[in-house]
Amino acid sequence: MDNVFGAVADPTRRLILERLRAHGPLSIKQLSEPLPISRQAVTKHLDILMESGLVEMRRVGRERVHFLNPAPLQEVDDWLRPYSEAWDRRLARLQQHLEERE
Amino acid sequence: MIAAIEKKLELDQSPTDVWRALTDPTEVAGWFGETASFAPELGDEGYFGWESHGKFSMRIEEFDPPSRLAWRWGREPNKPLDQTHSTLVEWTLLPREDGGTTLLLKESEFATEESRQDNVGGWDSELGHLVEHLAGA
User: Which of A6, A54, A91, B45 sits in a 20 to 30 Å window from A99, CA-based?
Assistant: First the structure.
């Protein structure tokens, strides 16, 4: 779980995830182009993302492409759920409060 | 750092009525916490209280009746408000044609231990989009 939170804590890594989500599989070259950092730095970020399971790599001919695997994000979603449920209870009470006031 | 919570609630009451329930401390204490102390105006600081948890500091950061309200509140009880240990709660009231209100809630700026250690700034919506994408996949 810490791996996933660590992976998404960095803005460059979130940008990489967002691009893979929006565009589908991309090579390191394609991922590096819009980023103001070196290809080596992008590779390091991709290593961290692959360790977390959020990004997977596949060889296509001579090229290596990276693609998004959103499954580990379920852990983030699960972590957030208790906060979300607290709001469901409060909003239900707000609705009840408004109805009782009438 | 974590995705924002977003909720939507359809209410029969008018935006003016809903606004009062969100901004009159006596009313807020009726559904949100057990006690609420603040003046309904921009910039005011107060708290939401729960006997079992303590008092959570809050500050009104947006106040535009009867359509937009935002408050920041602390994650930990009995402490002064602090930008890095607080979340932002935003309310949007949309009038419906039948006189009711569509109420939108967003709570954002959640932080994890990891992000505090990394000293990373504000959260953006990217992960939220990803989680939505995941939910829809």
Answer: B45
Minimum distance, in Å, between the CA of residue B104 and any CA atom of chain A: 11
pTM for the predicted model, two decimal places: 0.67
Count CA atoms closer than 13 A to A40's CA, side-chain side: 0
How many beta-carbon pairs under 8 angstroms link A with B? Answer: 98
Domains of chain A with CATH codes: 2-101 (1.10.10.10)
Residue B89's nearest CA partner among A78, A91, A11 is: A91
Q: Which of B22, B114, B127 sits opposite A6 (nearest CB)?
A: B114
Dihedral through CA B76, CA B92, CA B24, CA B43, nearest 10? 60
Whether the Cβ atoms of residue B60 and residue B102 lie closer than 8 Å to each other: no
B72-110 pLDDT per residue, tens: 999 888 999 987 788 899 999 999 999 999 999 998 888
CB contact under 8 A, A93 and B115: no
- Chain B residue set in contact with A, beta carbons under 8 Å: 1-3, 5, 7, 9, 11-13, 17-18, 21-22, 27, 30-32, 103, 105, 107, 110, 112, 114-115, 118, 120, 124, 126-127, 129-131, 133-135, 137
**Dihedrals phi, psi of B63, to nearest 5 degrees:** -150, 95
User: Whole-angstrom Cα distance, residue B78 to residue B81?
Assistant: 9
Identify the pLDDT of residue A2.
Answer: 67
